[in-house]
Every structure is written in structure tokens, then in C-alpha cells.
Amino acid sequence: MLPSKIKAEVKLTTGTGVSLAARELEALAVTDAGAVGLVAVLFVGGDRERDGRWTIVDAAGFFGRNGESVSSARSALVATARTQSWLDPLRRHVDALWPAFLHAFVESAEQGHAGLVAELETLHAERRLRERVPRDRVLGVEHLANVKELVRRHGESDAGRLAQDLLAYLLALVGYSKVTLNAVGVPDFVLEGCTVGDPVKHVMISLVRTDAERVVALCRAAGDERLALAVESKIR
Amino acid sequence: MSANDNARWRLASVTIRQFRGVAKEKTYAFDGRPAMLHGNNGVGKSTVAVALQWILFGRFYGDVLPNTKLDSFLAPVQGKGKAYSGEVAFSRGSERLVVSRDGGAKSFTVRLGKDTWSDEKAEAKRDEILGLDMDTFVRAVLLQQSRIRGLLLDEPKERNKALDRLLGMDAAEHLLDLVRPRDFSNAAVAWRDVIRDEQQQLRSQEELLGTQLEQCQRTARDLRFLNKDLNAPGLEVRYLELSRDLVALGRKYKVEVDELPPVPGAAKVAAVARAFEQAVRAIRLGAELRKRLTPVQKAIADLSGLSERSGEAVEARDSAVQELEAFVKTHGDRKTLLGERAEAQERLKAHRQELKEADGLRQLLLDAHDFVKRAKSRECPVCERVLPERTDLAARLRERSAGSASDAMERVRRSVEKAEGRIEEIGAALQDLTVLGKEVEVARKTLEKVREKAAEVLGATVPENKLQARVDESLGARREEEKKLALAVEAMEADLESVDGRERQLRAVLLPVVQKRDEVAAHEEKIEAAKKRHEKSEARGAEMDRYAAQLEVIRKAVIGAKEDLANELLGKAAPRAQELYRRLVRQPVFDTLEIEANAKAAKVDYTFQVTAGAGGAARDARLVLSDGQLTATALALFFALAESSQHALDLLYVDDPTQNLDLPCKEAMAKVVAEIARRRQVIVSTQDEDFVTSLKAEGFPKNAIIHHITAWDGNPTVETSAPASV
Amino acid sequence: MSLEKTVAAKLAAQRGQEEAAALWKKLWSAYEKNGVEGAHAFLGDLLDAPDDEDSAENA
């Protein structure tokens, strides 16, 4: 199942850890049971294994700590992520599409934050975002090159903002109709209007597990990540 | 027997079948009493001890006969067969416990009263009923010389081993040998090495491929390919464009070419390139231009030939005609010549006639001369007239024949010659005339042919005088036409070259990028697969580490336990051991025995020391005591241990205890044994007759059963004396 | 007390060594059944090192 609402704080770092200010953390608090507050970190520090990939953790893991800010090293974040399996569907979606998504918009990012957001907004509204994502595989080396280039071109701070924009719309592709970006405020973005799991017009289908897994794979191969996730969430 | 004795089992009998020194069957009765087995070496005494252990426990510690298989060890010394078996019977009051083992059937049973157990249950029952395991049995019941041999050795390791045996610590020692955490941590390292090595390989390969990909991409970008081209879809699009342009070219040059097959990936390019090549060739060869050019070029070839030949032909003909005319002018025509020849022939004929006549006349004159001369006639031989007197007829005749007749003849001959000469001349001239005539004919025919050809090529008959001009004119026009067509063909070649060049570039520049991308993609998949494998390897490595850690802990625990157990046993036995030590060893100075187990990092060793009085300086027993004294010490310890152990078997089986003992010691030993035998069931097996005597002298229980083995021939011959029980 | 029990007691007295205790139990059982060979075989079965196939496969 997907969260009904996502609040996210996004960080991009060339270092080995991140810090979250108290107010950033506060902004991720959720009251609704179906909502989630996320911390998403993009590491570009030189670790082949994690560079270029999003590490996504539930902010609930950080609550309960006193103090102004919270710091976390990469390894701790990764370890925390492993214990939060409810975010796995989101993570899978991001892992699968992020390289292609970045590749599709890395040139648009040249326009800077305003230009990029305008384009993403339009495409999302017209439901044409998916089309822009290339079907052809983006190689690992190419993706890393894209990420590094993003940082090189725009600097860590601006690159972080651009990554934030991209992640927001990437996640929106899963099935969120409303995207709210906060370039300066907190949280960095909010996604609402989850269209997956709409109770109206439901059809009940019963499949053998292996068939269901095949359906997921076929949907994914056809580029229909939303449907893939919808089926996949039922398998577990 | 005391009430205590009733609570413990005693050995009633041992039955041995086809086992080592017993080829057939032999039962040794003990009836719960002390006993003695004595006889010379090699009569099978030790067979009884071995049988006892084997029947009860089915095994020995590893070094009984280290290089011999158990079967060979147990099989009868004489004779064959693996059907060794045996029974040991115990009695406790009225109860009877029978333990049987069959090596052939591999069965083991324990019978107590009406109950019978087999195999594993029997093993458990045996331990339960007798209250001991093999360790305890070896430590506290059955003492064999082999156990203490090691104490006499110089190597501390061997002495420790011997003490282990004496204390029944073999299990701990075996396990410490076996438990090697290092093997597992090595395995963990090996797993990690595999991962690391492979990761390194994959990484360097990845780097290499990445660099190569970058290079290909750079080359492509230098040649104006865009980023969107540098992948399989890009390649496909480019080939699509090429296909379109190729079809358009075909249309332009009026050759129908098919669209190229699609290029969904690098693998398809070779086939498409071939199709492309064929299409280009089709256009090149089938273009309308070429079709038009060919006849023009042929016409030009023909016209060029004609141009050359027509001039020549006319010239040749004119020249021949001229020659002929000149000849005719000089010599006259055929008719004239023929006429002249006829005339000349007439003249010749006349001259020949003349000549003939002249010759006749001369001949006549000659004949007349001869006649006259012969006949000396005065008449003219010709006209028969009488000639004047003084006429020398002969001379006159001779004169006339040689003179005018000869002149005439000469004259006529010259005429003949002249006529003949003239005829010859005319003949030659006629021949020449023929030849010239033929030449003219040939030249005319040649010219005719040229004209015909020209008519064919020009499409119209042209008067001779205009032939050359027309041919040259036509040739010029065709050459113009050819030039135009050639230019058009050049343009077509340029078009084809251009499109060919594009295709070559796709193959040479873009295709390598796509192929390299495929390679990189395949390698990335390899890395992913390797990650999964590595997870497994990592897990196995982690497991090995866990085992290593656990085994380390177990090792330490075993060492600790061994130390504790050993010291517990030694502690319990210490007082009695001390007493027996003093009695048996009688060391004047070092009269205190100290044996202690000490746990070290990797093992437990023993301090086996003697001191001069309690608190005195401790010395290693081996350094102070002789072999005999050490043996006696070991026996002291053995007896002390046996007496301090708690189990339900009231038996001490001592096998050959007097090796290395001197006589006083043997006597002391005999005293000790006799004492113990009064309280417990002691069975002594010995070849030492002195000891036997001493034992008897010390009153080794009068109710003891004596088995005297007197001979052995595969089976022992035993004389048994069993006094009535008390 | 027997070796087995003594060792078991020592392991039980240590915190967090339940797995070691269980391993000891199995090891002792193998030793009891089949002596040195049995224990050796038991440990041999546990030991899992990469063989050449593993490395070759990975190469």
C-alpha cells in the first residue's frame, strides 16, 4: 500500500552523512495513519555502491531524540532503511526509475529550478511525464556521470534543489496527483491525492502467486510502474 | 560381603568368542570374587582386558594400535573370521546383568533380569546401570600398562597425554584437537577473498569499459552525433532516416529500392549494412542515366571508328583510281593493250615466218655450197642454169650464205626478239592493270562498307562527299550528350557516396558506441548477479565466523572443564594417592606428590611434581623418580582415582602392574593390592611370577579365583582354581 | 560431573552463548555416537569454504 500522503525532506551531499535541523524534522511529523514523513538522501560522495541512489528513511525513526538537529551517517541511514520495510514499494519505484528520470531531465535542469519545475508541472498535469522517461536502459556509469555532472554544473546546494524537484515528480509518477514544492520552506515537498488504491471501481482478481509476479514484471517492462506497484503491493 | 558391596555390581564372567587370543570360545569365571590371571607373555592375558572393554563399550581410544584397523585388531590371532563376539556378566546379590556384543551381527544387548535392551537403548542402559561411561571405566576400573607408559617418556607432551589417559581426559583432549576455530575463520576469510577478488576484477573491468565507452562517445560527438543518437534507439532512428533517403534516391534515379530492415539493436546492423550496400549497387547500376549513357557511349565508339576509317577509305580508293588512271594513261587501257598485243603477236608471227624463210634460204645456199663443192658442178643447184666460167660458185655461195642471208636472218631475228619483248611488256602491263584494277575494287568495297556502317549509325545514307563531315558532326553531338550524362552520373555517384558515407559513419562511429553500451550493460548485470552471489558468500563467510567464535568459546569451556574435572578427580584422590605414593615409592627425600591440572591458553597441562615435605621445593617427578618409581606413582594415582570415583561397578582390573618395579616395590604393590582386594573385586593380570608369589604371601584373598594360563595355540589353555566362596 | 555437562554448564553461565551451547551439544552427541571420526565428520560438515568452482564461477 502506498502512503496517502508523503512529506519529504530531501538532502544531497558529497559527504558521508546528513544533518536534519529540528524544524525540518518537525515538518515531517504526520498525524494521519496513512501518511508518512520521509527523509531522502542522495549521496554523491564516491561510494560506488550508494552514489547516485536515493536512501529513503521514515522520519519516524528520528523522532524522540532531543536536541536541535539530528545527524546520521550513511551507514546508519542504510541500516535504518533496512528495518523499515513498509517503504520498500516506494524505494523500488524510485530505484527503478530514477536513472532514466534524471537522464530525461538533466538537460532541462540546465534551465535552473524555475524552468525545470515549470516543465515538470506541465508534464505532470498533462499526464505526459511518463512519456519523457526513456525506455532504453541508462547505464550505471552514465547515471553516475549525470549525477556528478549535476553537482559539478550547479554546485551542491543548487543540485540538491534540482534533485528535490525531480524526486518529487518521480514519486508523483507512482500515483499522486498533487505536488507541492517548497523551495525555501519545510518540508521540501508534499505529495497528496494518491490515486492508487481508489476504492471506487475495484475489481477483485485472484491469481496464483507466480502469475501475479509475472504481471508485475510485465507491467514494469511496459513502463507502467503505477500498475506494477498496485499489483505488487497485494502480493506481500 | 557388606551391605555396601551388595549395592554394586561385580564381574561374574567374561565369555570370549573368536576374539584375538581366543580362536574359538573361552569363558573366564570370576563369580564376583577377586581373581588373578597369570601366565607367560603371549598367552592371551591381555585379550581378557581388551575383551572386557570391547564388549562393554565397543571401542578404544585412538592409540590402542594406531595403524591397525579395528577389525584386524579384534579378529582372532589365529584363524579367520569376523564373527568375534562376547559376553560379560555382572552380579549384584541375586541380580544378574549380561552385556553382549556381536561384532559380526553388529549388535549390542543388555539384559537385566527379564528385560532386554538393544543397541542405543542398551548403551544408555549400560551407562545408567553401571553408573559410568568409557572415560570412567578406563580411569577407574581398567588400568592397562599402556596407560602409564607415556609417563615415563621425556616429552612433556607425551606425559600430559599419559596423565590425560590416566585421568580419563581423552575425550576432552580429542575434542580440543578437533575443535579448530582457525579452520572456520580461515574459511570466512576465503569467502571474503573470493568476494573481494571478484569485486576487484569486476570493478577494473567496469572502469575499463567505462573509459572505452567515453572514448567512443567522444569520437561520436566530435563527428556531430548528438547525445540522443548515442544509444540503440538513436541508432535505429538514424538508420530509419538513411533508409528514407535511400528510397528517395532510388526514386530520383528511377530505381525501385526497398526500405531497409529495422535496426532494433547492434546485432542487426551487419545484415542491414548488406541490404544497404545492395540497394546502393542497384541504384548505381540500374539508374536510368546509366541506361541512357550506354548507347551513347557505344555510338561514340562507332562514330570515332567511322570517322577514322571513312577518311582512310576515300583516300585509299582515290589513290587506287589515280594509279590506275595514270597507268592507263601511260600504257593505255586493257582494250588498247590487248590490241597491241594482238598486233605484236601478228608481227611476231610474220617475223618468225621471215626468219624461217631466211633460214631456209641460207640453208639452201649452204646445201648448194656443199653440193657444188662436192659435185663441182657448174650449174646452179637452184635454178640449174649454167653459170659463167670464172664463177667460184662455192665461194659465192658461201659468201651469200654468210653475207646477205645472214644479215637478213639477223635482221629478222632482231625483229622477232623485239616483237617477243613487246609482247612480254604488254603481258606485264596487263598484269599490272589487273592488279591495279583489283586494288581499286577493294578500295571501293571498303569505302562501300564504311558508307553502309555510317548509314547504320547515322540512320541515313550520306553522300560520299559529305560522309566525313556528317560523321564528325554526329560524333560531336554525341560527345556533348555524353558529357551531360556523365555529369549527371557524377552527381548520382556523389549522392550515393554521400549516403554511403553516412552509413559507413553509422557503422564505424555510432555502432561501436551502441555495442560498447551493450557491453557495459551486460557487465552491470554481471555486477548485479555477482552482488547476489556475494550476499550468499558474505552470509556463508559470516556463518563461518560465527562458528569460529562459537568454537573458540567451546574450546575455552572445554579447557576450563577439563581443568576443573581433572582437578576435581585429583583432589578427591589426593590423600589416598599420597598415602599409596609413600608406600609404593618410598622416596626418601621427595615424599610428597603433587599433581595438578593447569589450564593454558590452548590446552591443559599438568604439573606432576614431587616435593620434599609439604611446602618444599617442587621438582618435576620425571627428573627425580626412576622409571620404576614413576610406574609405582602412576599405580598409586590409579588406585586412588579408582577408589574415589563413584559408580556402581565394584571392580578394579589391573593389567600387568609390575613392569619396571623392583622387588621391594613389587612386594609393596602386592600388599596394597591384597588390601584393596579385601574390600573390592580386584582382578590382577600378570606374567610376573614373583608378584604372584608376593600376592599370595600377602594373602591375596583366599577366595580369589586363579586362572593360570599355561599354554596358547590359538586358544588359551587355562587351569582354574576356584576355592569355595566364603 | 561429566565433561559434557561441565562444558555445558560453563557455556550456560556465559551470557549470549546459547548458540555455542547448542553447538556443543551437537558436537558432543556426534562424538558420543562415533567418537573422533564422528566429531570430525560433524565439524567437517559445518565447515564450508569456497572451492575452486566457487571462484571460477565468480571469475
Provide structural commentary:
The complex is a heterotrimer of chains A (236), B (726) and C (59). Chain A is of the alpha+beta class. Chain A folds into two domains: 5-196, no CATH class; 197-236, no CATH class. Chain A is built from eight helices and seven strands. Chain A has helices at 22-26, 74-82, 88-105, 112-125, 129-132, 140-175, 209-221, 225-235; strands at residues 5-13, 17-21, 35-43, 54-58, 69-73, 176-181, 189-194. In chain A, the strands form two sheets. Chain A has a five-stranded mixed sheet with strand order 4-3-1-7-6. Chain A has a two-stranded antiparallel ribbon with strand order 2-5. In chain A, β6 (176-181) and β7 (189-194) form a beta hairpin. The radius of gyration of chain A is 17 Å and the shape is globular. The mean pLDDT of chain A is 86. By secondary structure, chain B is an alpha/beta fold. Chain B has 19 helices and 15 strands. Chain B has helices spanning 3-6, 45-57, 70-74, 119-130, 134-140, 145-149, 156-167, 170-178, 181-222, 232-252, 269-286, 288-331, 334-375, 393-458, 464-585, 621-624, 627-644, 663-679, 689-697, and strands spanning 10-19, 22-29, 35-39, 85-92, 95-102, 107-112, 115-118, 142-144, 592-599, 604-611, 618-620, 651-655, 681-686, 705-712, 716-721. In chain B, the strands form three sheets. A six-stranded antiparallel sheet of chain B has the order 2-1-4-5-6-7, covered by helices on one side. A six-stranded mixed sheet of chain B has the order 8-12-13-3-14-15, with helices on both faces. A three-stranded antiparallel sheet of chain B has the order 9-10-11. Chain B is elongated. With 59 residues, chain C is mainly alpha-helical. Chain C has one domain (3-47). Chain C is 80% helix and 0% strand. Chain C has three helices and no strands. Chain C is flat. Chain C starts with a helix and ends with a helix. The model of chain C has no long low-confidence stretch (mean pLDDT 85). The chains are: A alpha+beta (236), B alpha/beta (726), C mainly alpha (59). The B-C interface holds B 59, 62, 133, 135, 169, 171-172, 174-175, 178-180, 183-184, 186-187, 190-191, 194, 197-198, 201, 530, 533, 537, 540, 543-544, 546-547, 549-551, 553-554, 557-558, 560-562, 564-565, 568 and C 1-3, 6-7, 10-11, 14, 17, 19-20, 23-24, 27-28, 31, 35-36, 39-40, 43, 46-50, 54-55, 57-59.
